Amino acid sequence: MIVWINGTHGAGKSTTSALVQELLPNSRVFDAEKVGEVLMDIAPALPDLGNFQHWDPWRPLVVETARRLLEYTGGTLVIPMTVLVESYWREISAGLDGYGIPVQHFVLHADEQTLRDRIQKDKVLGPSSFRMAYVEPYADAAEAWLHAEAEVIDTTRISPELAARRIAERVLRRHADVKGGS
User: Fold this and answer.
1) Which domains occur in the chain, in start order?
2) First to last CA, the chain
C-alpha cells in the first residue's frame, strides 16, 4: 500500500514521513521529487513550466516507479509529496488504483502564519521564496478539494512525532479493518 503525505512546504512532510516509516513495519520512504529531479537532468532541458509536476511524464513515472518498488519490496511506501493540482492527484491516484495499489492519503496542515514562520526559520533549507510561493496555492487547494480528499492532520501545534503516530495509528487501524473484513 501507499501512505501519501501531502501538504505544502513547511507542513512537516519530510520529517513526519521518516517518523511514519519507523512506525510502520516493512515500509520505505519514496521521495517522488527524485523522479522530478531525473527529469530536470535531461539535456537539452525540458520546457520551463515552473514546476516539474507540470511535465506530462512526471505523474505516470511516479505511478510506475511506486508500482515497481512495491512489486520488488512489498510492504508500504510512504510518499511525502506536495500535489496541489487536483487533476494531477486524480491522474496519480487513478494510476495507482489501476494497479490495485491502495492509497491512504494524508494532508499535513498548518495555518498560514505557521507555514510562513517555518519556511522563514528553516535551519536546514533556510528561507525560500520558492517554498513561500506555495503557501497561497496550498490554501486554495485545501479549500477547493484537497482537504475533502484526504485525512487532515493539523500540525500547527503538534510535534512531527505526534503527527507520525496519528498517521501510523490510522494506517494500522485501516490495515486491521481490511484484514478483519477479508
Assistant:
1) 2-173 (3.40.50.300)
2) 16
